[in-house]
Design goal:
Distance between the termini: 21 Å
Radius of gyration: 20 Å
Helix content: over 70%
Shape: globular
Structural class: mainly alpha
Strand content: under 5%
Number of helices: 14
Number of strands: 0
Largest sheet: none
Number of domains: 1
Length: 241
């Protein structure tokens, strides 16, 4: 409780950023979909420059949580087809990197500094950072965890950048490929966004990814907690402090 109270009192900017990252996509998705629907002609046969411009724009919207990644993937698949898939992957990597750098610059080590004042929480977080690749992979597998919000959290708790980027791409790939394919098969972009009919196979895929993510994260946290609270680990943490 003391940790949460101090977090609310002294780290308001971090918490405000988290709230904005959770809520902004609801507005941004609608604006992006409407804008693309009204200017669909050039997206049907875009030039290279127009494609680059499109990917720069959606990288910006994903970085600042103005759109959900799933919506961007669906829309890109609908308008650009498979020729736009490599660009979508590069855009995703760029958005992840920019989001990571932005979070680090905004937080400036405040959360880690706060954790260091609470030895048990700090010990658990150290254990999780030691397993960063799996931690990032499991969070990215989940189809319900917001992209920008998770990026912010992983960055401020000190997940190494290289592991963050590689595990992010691998974790997002299964659902990215599926929803991109779904976008290429759609007939109307507004209907696609409002009700993406994933079919039985899609529902099974989403359920499997969600289950793997949840159970994997539960196992990861429980193992980190056990290791952090072992007598020898607790003693080492005290000596280090």
């Amino acid at each position: 409780m003391a940790f949460l109270r101090e977090l609310f009192q002294q780290h308001t900017s971090t918490l405000v950023s988290l709230l904005l990252l959770a809520g902004l996509p609801l507005v941004g998705d609608s604006l992006l979909t409407w804008g693309l629907h009204e200017n669909a002609d050039w997206l049907r046969n875009p030039t290279l420059g127009q494609m680059v411009l499109y990917f720069v724009v959606v990288a910006f919207t994903m970085t600042f949580a103005l759109t959900h990644t799933t919506v961007v993937v669906l829309v890109t698949g609908f308008y650009l087809g498979w020729k736009g898939f490599p660009g979508m992957l590069l855009t995703y990597m760029l958005a992840a990197l920019l989001g990571y750098l932005l979070a680090v610059s905004l937080d400036r080590g405040k959360v880690i500094g706060l954790l260091e004042r609470f030895p048990k929480a700090h010990a658990v977080m150290q254990e999780l950072r030691g397993d960063s690749w799996r931690l990032v992979l499991l969070t990215r597998l989940s189809p319900v965890l917001p992209f920008a919000l998770i990026t912010f959290i992983l960055a401020v708790v000190g997940v190494p950048r290289r592991q963050f980027l590689t595990a992010s791409v691998v974790g997002m790939l299964p659902r990215t490929v599926f929803f991109y394919w779904l976008g290429t098969k759609a007939q109307d972009v507004l209907a696609l966004i409002q009700n993406p009919d994933t079919g039985t196979a899609g529902k099974v895929l989403v359920a499997v990814l969600l289950a793997v993510s949840l159970f994997g994260l539960y196992f990861l946290f429980s193992q980190a907690l056990k290791r952090a609270l072992r007598p020898d680990a607790t003693s080492a943490q005290k000596n280090f402090s």
